[in-house]
Design goal:
Layout (H helix, E strand, L loop, with lengths): L6 H5 L1 H17 L13 H15 L11 H10 L4 H17 L4 H12 L2 H4 L3
Helix pairs in contact: 2-3, 2-5, 5-6
Pfam family, one: Bac_globin
Protein name: Group 1 truncated hemoglobin
Cofactor: heme
Length: 124
């Protein structure tokens, strides 16, 4: 069971998370700084995992069954993934939510929840 009044619920649930992930990856893949990390990657699979991950992190149903963040991003860290890239991803997430007319308070909440994953994603 997921949390009531969670960010997931306040954003609009599965439909909104799915829409956000689609827009978000369009932005990420269009970013010359981030695009190299996705060469040869099954983006549809990554988007599916991202939808499940965000649903879980944002307090929705726990449907994420992938590797933990440290293991999932290990190869990317070995290829140079750093704070600069993480910050770019965070900005794309915020811009995506803004584009979907999500208010600043909820965007800040999403940013804080995502930021809580920085250490693991960057392998620290």
């Amino acid at each position: 069971m997921y949390q009531t009044n969670s960010l997931y619920e306040q954003l609009g649930g599965e439909e909104m998370v799915s829409k956000a992930v689609s827009i978000f990856y369009r932005k990420v893949l269009g970013d010359p700084l981030l695009r190299p990390f996705f060469e040869g990657v099954d983006v549809a699979r990554v988007e599916s995992m991202q939808r499940a991950f965000l649903a879980t992190v944002f307090g929705g149903p726990n449907t994420y069954s992938g590797r933990d963040m440290r293991r999932a991003h290990k190869r990317l860290v070995e290829r140079g993934l750093s704070d600069v890239h993480f910050d770019a991803v965070m900005n794309h997430l915020d811009n995506t939510l803004a584009e979907l007319n999500v208010g600043k308070l909820l965007r800040d909440w999403a940013r804080a929840l995502t930021e809580s994953q920085r250490r693991d994603i960057l392998g620290r």
